Amino acid sequence: MNTPLFEIVDIPINVEEVRRKVTDRNAGAITLFIGTVRELTKGKKTLHLEYQAYPAMAIKMFEQISKEIQERWPEAKVAITHRIGHLDISDIAVVIAVSSPHRKIAYMANEYAIERIKQIVPIWKKEFWEDGTEWIGDQLEKVPYPEGNPSIKRGELS
Amino acid sequence: MINILLFAHLQEAIGKSELRVDLSDYTVGQIKEWMENQYPQLSLQNIMTAVNEEFATDQMIVKDGDTLAFIPPVSGG
Question: What family does this chain come from, according to its entry (chain B) (predicted)?
Fold first, then answer.
């Protein structure tokens, strides 16, 4: 099967398709993480989101995350698809599938993948609220920085 | 010539997502300064950079034909 394990798409993600990519006869578990668009963040209402990516680099970073997972858990197999463009509330933004012989590694590697995505993968989201818009980004998805002055240190990514 | 890519709010600040400039053999740090002088509305403080799709330091020299991308703090997932 030739479908790439890591994809950026601008259409709705087919979860089953991502799961199928990590199918393995030696797998005893597959974990699926499905990231969806939330309506309320600290009481503020999101109308919709717009995701943008630097696709070529994002794919490279997905591959790097997979490599890091291989180093930690050689039995784990990972596939990731992230959607970009306009997303409405409850739409699926990202799907991560991890298979492994036993469930514990599938859970751990899957969580590792989403944490790393939030640190190193060049994808950005723009929030559309009732009273305005804002590009979000502090790598932990908490603090918006409207004028390009994120308040966190970014040195750990060399 | 080098290619410069901008994303998210940086792209909106200057109204362009891509530039071609004659800044081969300058460092990432020098190109950042040049950009900020050229576009006073642009702040590249704490913005990461990538050269040819790999994260880069301010000291790295950008060669003819390279692609330099300014990477704001990411918010995927």
Answer: Belongs to the MoaD family.
